[in-house]
User: What shape does this take?
Amino acid sequence: MPETDSNSEHSKIRHVAIIMDGNGRWANERGLERIEGHKKGVDNVELVVKLASEIDLEVLTLFAFSSENWKRPKAEVDALMALLESFLLEKKKLLHEQKIHLRPVGKIEDLPENVRNLLRETCRETQSYPRTLALALNYGSRLEVLEAVKKYAQAVGDGNEHPDEICWKKFSKYLYTSDLPDPDLMIRTSGETRLSNFLLLQSAYAEIYYSPVNWPEFGREAFEDALKSYHQRERRFGKTGAQIQELKVAGK
Ligand code: IPE
Ligand code: IPE
Ligand code: MG
Assistant: This one.
């Protein structure tokens, strides 16, 4: 069976990934500073985490800071790092209440030390919980691939990997998302229709949904619209529609 065809329950949704975009525009539209949009965006995370729990989602991945976002003005980057720190401090309670394991996805080494320490601590404290909130921080797919290739090459050098035996399952263990299932649904808010270097390999067979709503206002209705759209689609993983229907009839 091809490696991409591991999801036999074609419509089951385990993992939703969200590109939380439009904070700046939300603020600009109201004559506010961009940072006000980011604050409002951080406030919205709790609601969406709760909506994910309601549908018993296994993994919610949120794109919070890309490896390209360092190019923004220093004041904005500093403000985002400060918001990240307060988010981690304030949302511990929520994670415990909702039984959610928080884990980062990205090149964590480059984040400020206080943020790194908090991430490590929260990740450890919540590791036994069944659901996952993956925060994509200093994340970019190209960076991820380069880092993975370096680690893989090292493992080949050490004699722990053999290039003749490489397959996607083995290689994907070197990605930041190593132990996470692939996203079933990828949502981008704010009406932009691009992936901006987010989970490009993991989303090979994800359903993509573009919401016109800016992230600070992406609430229950917008989330439910995305889920509804997802459930109306037919995921084929390279097969024909007829084959998928046969599998459904057979209950597979
Ligand atoms: C998303 O909102 C948050 C981050 C990228 C950190 P933006 O800041 O990109 O908002 P827009 O796209 O400028 O509206
Ligand atoms: C993607 O949004 C990154 C996050 C949501 C964290 P951007 O706003 O940085 O993407 P581009 O630059 O518009 O493609
Ligand atoms: Mg943006």
Q: What stands out?
A: The pocket of IPE (ligand 1) is lined by residues 20-25, 65, 69, 80, 190 (CB under 6 Å).
